[in-house]
Amino acid sequence: MRPSSLFAKELDSLSPLSASGYGSVAKVFVVCEKDEGLQASFQRWMIENYPVNEVRVIEEADHMAMMSTPEKLSQFISEIVDKYASFINE
Length: 90
Hints:
Layout lengths: L7 H6 L14 E5 L7 H10 L4 E5 L6 H4 L1 H19 L2
Parallel strand pairs: 1-2
């Protein structure tokens, strides 16, 4: 076992995630249907257990959507930014 950051001591002093911090960010989950590392059923379990504002699905995407379906992923990211940009200015 090893620390996940080179700054483990600094991370230890930070407060845990909160509703006013992490919870205030709009979250969108992109399900990659052909992902064999995180199968779609597990991705849906994550969504159920850690709710998000929106779910998008790329049926053709594998684990590396930026490599397998870059156009579709880029389209989704652009749409998501347009939709949730108002959160940034609040």
